[in-house]
Amino acid sequence: MIRIGTSGWRYPEWRDGFYRNVPQRRWLSHLASHVGTIEINSSFYRLQPPSNYRKWYAETPADFVFSVKGPKLITHLKRLRHVEEPLKTFLDSLALGPKQGPIIWQLPPTLRFDHALLQDFLATLPPGRHAVEPRHESFRTNAYFDLLHAHNVAHVISDAPTFPCIEAVTADFAYIRLHGHDELYISSYDDRQLDKWAQQIRDWDRDTYVYFDNTMKGAAPGNARTLAQRLGMPLTSHT
Fold it and tell me: Model-level pTM greater than 0.85?
C-alpha cells in the first residue's frame, strides 16, 4: 500500500493553478480526487473540534486516508514531557474512523535526542501508526533507530535544505516528507529526484506514506501525481 499526497490543502497560492475555477469550499474534495492521502497540518497549531474531522471525512472518497500532525503543545511547548493530559485531549478529538492514518510528531529543531525522554513519550502513545520527525542531527544514531523499531514507530524521512535528511526505516511502514530539496517549502522536484524516490520506495517494499510539503509556489500536487505515475499508480485514483 503506497499513499502519495500533500501536506495540507488550504493554499491560496494554488488558486490560479491547481484550484483554477474550483470554489474554495471544494478545495479538499478536488485535491482528494487526485491523491490518495493528505496530511492534516491544522491540528499542529490548534485543537480541532471533532466536527471538523467529520466534515473532512465526508468530503473525501471512501478509501481515502488522512495523516494527522500532533499538536505543537506536546512537541514544542511541553517538549514531550508531562503530556498525558493534552495527548488524551488530542486523541479524543479525532473523528476520522477508518480514514485515520498515521499520527506524525514533528519535533522542534532545538530538541536533541534524549533516549529516556523519547522512550517515555513512545510508551504513552496508543496503538496505531505513529511517525516521528526529528530536526536535530543528534538523532542520527542507532540508539534512536533501535528505540523506534522496538515500538514499531516510523522515523520520518525528511528532504529539506535546512534540517537533516536521515534515511532510515524503523517500522513496518515508511513515512516521507518532501519539503523542497533546494528551497524549503518552495522548490519543485525534477524527474531525476522523483526517480530516486520512486526507486527507494520500491526497494523498501512496505506500506509507504509520502507527503509533498513544497506548497508555497504550488509544486506539491503536480509532484505527487508525477511520483504516483512513476510507481505505476493511477494519476486520478477516484471518480
Answer: yes
